[in-house]
Design brief:
Elements (H helix, E strand, L loop, with lengths): L1 H14 L1 H25 L8 H21 L12 H25 L7 H28 L9 E6 L3 H12 L5 E7 L9 E2 L2 E5 L4 H8 L3 E4 L6 H11 L5 E4 L3 H7 L8 E2 L2 H5 L8 H7 L3 E5 L4 H11 L5 E6 L2 H15 L5 E5 L5 H11 L3 E4 L6 H6 L1 H21 L4 E7 L8 H19 L3 E7 L1 E2 L6 H10 L4 E3 L5 E2 L1 E2 L1 H14 L4 E5 L5 E2 H11 L10 E3 L20 E2 L5 E4 L6 H16 L3 H11 L10
Parallel strand pairs: 1-2, 1-5, 2-4, 5-6, 8-9, 8-11, 9-10, 11-12, 12-13, 13-18, 14-17, 15-20
Antiparallel strand pairs: 3-4, 6-7, 16-19, 18-22, 21-22
Helix pairs in contact: 2-3, 2-5, 3-4, 4-5, 11-19, 12-19, 14-16, 16-17, 16-21, 17-22, 21-22
Length: 623
């Protein structure tokens, strides 16, 4: 019964909101006019002024209501009122009392309204109507919803416009999931002051100490315009705590999206922590594929599909996507069709790079001018268990594609390689090193410009550690890390692909391109960060377990081999390793022997053959 009555009252108030507000203002303004008469006369009996008081009061109320109505005082949603609304109310009050003063001096000539009444009644009317609206706004914006879930204690980074807007949203939100306890800002003049009632208790350097003192559970970065360097610095400080981290997006973008602010407060991504500037494509890189027939093998994979996205944006004559996995190939095909329409110059070919005759037929038919070879088996532990499959797919798949590229006069060929090819300790790395050697060997004798691009782990790629960690966190843990000291280099998929296209544009043949990947990332730190970014506390909410290094895995990945040397290119983030001297005659003979062993499925002899072909390969079981 009580709930039904409350619902009826709420519905009635919403339906007749304007009429209720007018009635309230009439009562408040009437009282505002009578109160000065009481103060002046010192009594509540107005017998001798009865007719003048009633007539002037009625006129006073009419002046205010008419002006308020004309100035839209009853059209505003006062729950969301800002300073402009209150300023407009003050102006309306001044206009009303001015009209009332001028007209009453002309209307009431025999018995005049006391001069002091004008000022006092205007002041009281402004105060009552203003404070009634302010009180209503504060009540609505701070009204707590009945939510048994405890609110998370939040530390806010930033005390600017974005933080102010966020606090407005938090105070008027009924969900009340966040309890913003304190704030920090690197502007010294702000420290010790407050914003929307939240004290600015220090700078970003004080975050670890404030987290302990204020029992903070969540840290929210509310500086959307922060540059990458400072964002990385601040997030690295936050990572010293056990709090989960969240970030406020650009408010201008939110307005364009039409979404409310709180719903778009997002988790900090690993990309935010890396703080790397992405490589920009040059005009020369864009013209590399413009108007050309371009083939991407493994075009449905994480790297291959991003290659297709960036290539199609450069207006090729035809993009040929080759992949053995039809689901991935279909997915990127439909994505590009949705974005560019049915007329997009695109062909999808389901084929395996192992099939030399099929690869030859594709090259004969399409005559690609630029080839990006991304097809490969990349999963280290699985390739340890199936080395013959790694050799068949990686080594001889690459050989088949390079052979056809040379045969049909492809202008440029780019191999997607990996940092695991450097001093490899696993079969996958050794096969990728052999792929580089194949490319360099062909580069010594072919008119086609063969190059390889070597980079580290790609965030979010198929088979990378990030999706694995996310799945483990989603399942409630534990998150498995092989070793507490293991480190890896990381980059984003778009960044990696820009490097590939940039390398393709500048390669002269036989080169191995290397990206300046910055500092390596500790996998344990990455796991802890992902747990925090998912809203949990490491070791309390989600356990981390160390499982030991997997077969073929090493603690540190290397980017360049000692014998390769290094020289700068025009792009400050890209370097070139000098080509190795490879005896192409004996090298291809050894490859033929390796192929025989691989297709005999003799794993033991195959690993030894890889060691013989790749001098820097140090397999754990053959040490």
């Amino acid at each position: 019964m009580v709930i039904e009555l409350s619902s009826f009252v709420s519905e009635f108030a919403q339906r007749f909101r304007k009429q209720i507000l007018i009635v309230f203002d009439v009562v408040a303004i009437t009282f505002s006019y009578i109160l000065p008469w009481i103060l002046i006369s010192g009594r509540t009996s107005f017998t001798e002024h009865n007719s003048l008081l009633i007539a002037s009061c009625f006129y006073f109320v009419c002046c205010y209501e008419i002006v308020y109505g004309l100035m839209g005082m009853y059209d505003s949603l006062w729950r969301y009122a800002e300073i402009v609304e209150f300023f407009r109310l003050c102006v309306a009050s001044i206009v009303s009392v001015t009209i009332f003063t001028v007209t009453t001096l002309l209307m009431f000539t025999e018995r005049r309204v006391p001069i002091s009444i004008y000022g006092l009644s205007a002041m009281f009317a402004s105060l009552f109507t203003l404070y009634s609206r302010l009180t209503y706004r504060m009540y609505r914006n701070t009204k707590l919803a009945k939510n048994p879930k405890p609110r998370r204690r939040v530390l806010l980074i930033g005390a600017g416009d974005a933080a102010s807007t966020l606090l407005h949203e938090v105070f008027k939100s009924r969900s009340q999931e966040m309890n913003i306890v304190c704030c920090v800002d690197d502007a010294p003049e702000k420290v010790g002051r407050s914003i929307m009632g939240v004290e600015i208790m220090g700078t970003t350097e004080d975050i670890p100490e404030l987290v302990e003192r204020c029992e903070i559970e969540t840290i929210l970065l509310a500086i959307p315009t922060l540059d990458d360097e400072n964002k990385k610095r601040i997030l690295s400080i936050c990572n010293k705590t056990k709090c989960n981290l969240r970030i406020l997006p650009d408010i201008v973008k939110l307005i364009a999206d039409g979404k409310d602010l709180l719903s778009r407060v997002r988790d900090v991504r690993v990309e935010d922590v890396l703080g790397r500037d992405e490589i920009e494509l040059t005009n020369f890189s864009s013209t590399l594929v413009n108007g050309k027939v371009v083939m991407v093998t493994g075009g449905g994979g994480s790297i291959g599909s991003e290659l297709c996205r960036q290539i199609i944006a450069c207006s090729p004559k035809l993009l040929v996507i080759v992949d053995i996995y039809e689901n991935n190939a279909y997915s990127i095909q439909q994505e590009l069709i949705r974005k560019y329409g049915r007329d997009v110059p695109l062909e999808v070919c389901i084929a395996s790079v192992r099939d030399s005759k099929k690869v030859d037929a594709l090259f004969a038919h399409y005559r690609p001018q630029v080839v990006f070879h991304a097809a490969a088996h990349k999963h280290v532990p699985l390739m340890e268990d199936a080395p013959e499959e790694a050799v068949k797919n990686n080594v001889f798949g690459t050989y088949n594609v390079t052979l056809s590229a040379d045969k049909y006069g492809t202008e440029r060929f780019v191999l997607i390689s990996t940092d695991k090819a450097v001093n490899p300790t696993n079969v996958m790395g050794a096969t990728k090193r052999l792929c580089e050697m194949i490319v360099q060997a062909f580069g010594q004798k072919s008119k086609t410009k063969f190059v390889a691009v070597r980079f580290g782990n790609v965030l979010g790629s198929n088979g990378s550690v990030i999706p694995l960690f996310k799945d483990q966190i989603l399942s409630g843990g534990p998150v498995t890390v092989t070793h507490p000291d293991i480190v890896r280099y990381f980059m984003t998929i778009p960044e990696a692909v820009r490097l590939v296209i940039e390398a393709a544009a500048m390669g002269d043949g036989g080169d191995i391109f290397v990206l300046d990947m910055g500092n390596p990332v500790k996998i344990l730190d990455l796991a802890e960060n992902l747990i925090k970014l998912s809203g949990f506390i490491p070791y309390r909410d989600i356990e981390i377990k160390f499982t030991g290094l997997r077969p073929g895995e090493k603690l540190y990945e290397e980017i360049l081999m000692d014998e390769e040397g290094l020289r700068q290119t025009d792009n400050s983030k890209i370097f070139i390793g000098s080509p190795l001297k490879i005896n192409k005659d004996t090298f291809f003979d050894h490859l033929a022997t390796l192929k025989q062993i691989a297709y005999s499925n003799n794993s033991e002899n195959l690993v030894q053959a890889l060691i013989d072909l790749v001098p820097t390969f140090h397999h754990q079981e053959h040490r």
